[in-house]
Fold these 4 entries.
Entry 1:
Amino acid sequence: MQVTFNASVGLLGAIVNETDGHQHAPVNSTEKKNGRTENLYKIQCFPLYSMLVAVGRTQVDYFSLDVEGSEYKILRTIPWTKLDITTLTVEWNHVPEGEKAITRLMEENQYIKFGQISMYHSQEVVYVKDFLYDFRQYYD
């Protein structure tokens, strides 16, 4: 997929447009909008799984996901049965689907919500792979 990324806010850039490859995102440019300059870049995105397989790594000890609003969409693309991610933190305060949707998705993929990290500019959830899941399913 291609996205248009607005990098005019320093470290707090954001995706402003998504395309599935059939539409054309704007080319890299600098535009004026509401009296300020916006730096827009067309970026090609690849699934996390594809990148990890390309480098020969499907086991990850810690993964931090903070992309200013597309976290849920990204998590839905991960083939959890093919990757072994032990611990991850996910920023959720910009996610339209909300923290509950992320937690439900993670629980469906055998992760436990371990805690939350709250900062002035960020709300994150910590998930840990439920290594006892296989044992627990026999007792339910």
Note: Residues 3 and 39 are 13 Å apart (CA to CA).
Entry 2:
Amino acid sequence: MKNALITGITGQDGSYLAELLLEKGYNVYGIMRRKSVVDYGNVDHIKDKINFIYADMTDVVSLIQAMKISQADEVYNLAAQSFVATSWDTPLGTADIDALGVTNMLEAIRTVKPEAHFYQASTSEMFGKVQAIPQDETTPFYPRSPYGVAKLYGHWITKNYRESYNMFACSGILFNHESERRGKEFVTRKITDAVARIKLGVQDHVELGNMDAKRDWGHSKDYVKAMWLMLQQDAPDDYVIATNETRTVREFVETAFRVAGIDVVWEGTGVDEVGKDKATGKVIVKVNPKFFRPAEVELLIGNPAKADSKLGWERQIKFPELVERMVKNDLALVEKEIKAANI
């Protein structure tokens, strides 16, 4: 029976990964930051099966202690300040967690159990202003946000420790992956939550930023399988995990409303563009410049050929099903809210 340590275990990816590892018979340890009120987040339903350790990515001593307690054979570093927009507001905090925090975790592993296998959650945001289409493991990086820059440091320090200390350290360059457990600050969940509220009459419209931004969207449940596969290989390496399909924010909006039985028609361009309910003519989508990024990432599309061939990774949940799952989940949640408010 293997021991696994997951940072960021209460988040979207951490919860799906914890479920996967528990199914495979692992002893699962999860790092949590101490708060006045304990918040198990997305692992509340399996909290009794997880060994929680209080630690912080900015405190290497606590990470060393976490390694000593868990004696982890595999370490999955999913902890991050992962909201791109916030990284402009808190660039130093983002760097402390997403960049230096990776070094702290690597040092803790090197100190306690250097033979442990390490997974670093890298991101397609490192490609930023893309230098090739589609992007793969050889594409040059050009990050366009403090988040992307911090993650790039984490990516390269992982490679450096692998080459300098012969550690089994991998980075997964994951493109956008969503799910029913995604936080509402992310545009995909913001959209599906708004669709549910508009459908059920508790919200008039949703305001979004760049409708033409293109992303490669997959489901988190598929992507955590790739993380696990990377650490089962004979040698460590880095892999792009993606769908090789790209869609605009506008397409995501259309698909989400369609799940709720609403057809969207568009009028205007740029900041004056609006989306209307085809049946009623009511404006349900507006563009708000405050949601534009200071430096936009216009297009992301990843080529997962290496992961497909070397890891045997396969994606099960396609884009339409991803959106459908998210919308139906939010419809159920909002309906529950409405019933509770009327009691």
Note: The chain is about 40% helix and 15% strand.
Entry 3:
Amino acid sequence: MVDRRSGPLARDAMAYVLAGGRGSRLKELTDRRAKPAVYFGGKTRIIDFALSNALNSGIRRIGVATQYKAHSLIRHLQRGWDFFRPERNESFDILPASQRVSETQWYEGTADAVYQNLDIITDYQPEFMVILAGDHIYKMDYELMLQQHVEQGADVTVGCLEVPRMEATGFGVMHVDEKDEITAFVEKPADPPGIPGQPDMALASMGIYVFRTKFLADLLRRDAETPGSSRDFGKDLIPYIVEHGKAVAHRFSSSCVRSSRESVAYWRDVGTVDAYWEANLDLTDIIPELDLYETSWPIWTYAEIKPPAKFVHDIDGRRGEAISSLVSGDCIISGGSVRRSLLFTGVRVHSYAGLQEAVVLPECDIGRNARLSKVVLDRGVRIPDGLIVGEDPELDARRFRRTESGVCLITQPMIDALDT
């Protein structure tokens, strides 16, 4: 049945963000924090992109399901996302795995993370549920996806990326007909199905789903009673709907938010150290593929009260400078040189130090005469005077986490081990 209501659908929707992932491929960056809580872009966290998309789309009820190493994430959400007001029919709920269904049961899968909180969801009585992954970098207007869901009378609408066919082997892939109705859902296929009319392209799932709430609740209850289910949207619920209902693909390119300077539909899974380093450094390009300076679609976050960045000393060989770089508040570049790098809040770069292609998380301190290239520094790392990284691959690999492409991830325990 086609819904002919007037006004935005987002006001009758709840966004539910799945933010419990371990993020183990980010190695030591997720030793103390969940992947959605990892820093990105100079001042934000990864989860801020999904949350900002929901807020900018007009959704005013949001829930965030957390699980592994959630303290850093919960603290960020409490500090940066506490402006929703119940008297305006707004809500923001942080939903740790709290054994609401069973005293011994944590979230068993993505679907179970919603099922265990159905009572909270139904109390708000949203007509639609927008299920989101909390660990991707992109800008998207979910209102357009909601409109397609209603117009096509779908049981589920699945957000999809158009990717080269043989690059889709690591995704859940949609096999669709000419109307983008999903005829099969294949998890990580060796030979992904092509798109009708675009045989060299495939539709890969973004982990974004739209449902009517009542339909989703019934589906989750059925799945919870099904022996052997892995309680997962991609593995269980979506294939069930494809077989027994109507599942429709929504192409990201039709709802991606782009400024006049953005030429591509930008989406990144920054799930590896290399991908994380590359996506951050992409922001230093003269015209980056992701425009964080677009004020009409802001990325909301916890805004720390900090002084401006500062550059001091103007002597040949000892000049505080940053070229093709992003430098956040409370950074002091004191006689050091920063090139094609991204510095988060509170970084100190001391005299004669040099950074090249560096992603430096908050409150790091770079000692005098240090030279670092192609690195990611975890929060609070104190680089000793004279340390050189990025010039001797074998030495780097013995001391730090070095990827196959030559990016070195450096943590404070690695630095402390240099003295032992």
Note: The chain has ten helices and 29 strands.
Entry 4:
Amino acid sequence: MAGRGKLIAVMGDEDTVTGFLLGGIGELDKHRRPNFLVVGEGNEPGRDRGGLSVVGFLAREDVGMILISQALAEQIRPAVAAHARALPAVLEIPSKDHPYDPARDSVLRRARGLFAPDELR
């Protein structure tokens, strides 16, 4: 990876992932593993499919950021909450069928813990 940047991985429903792929983030690593995962009916979000899971993306050296739909993050909350390293950053995003809820966002909850409540106003 010398001289190259890190990849953005995306996990979510078909429409969310397709939008990011149309935006140009789709890549394959040297082992031909993609940096995206469509999770929907019929496949489980926590099951590792050859390195294609949140745990698999967290272990990859070439991934610098993981975008995960908030609805999917709720289904695998223990794995998302257990991640404490700075890289890869795990950011929860809204999806078409599930609007963003800041109260459930793990990154926002951690950020709130750094400040006193009166400093957030």
Note: The mean pLDDT is 77.
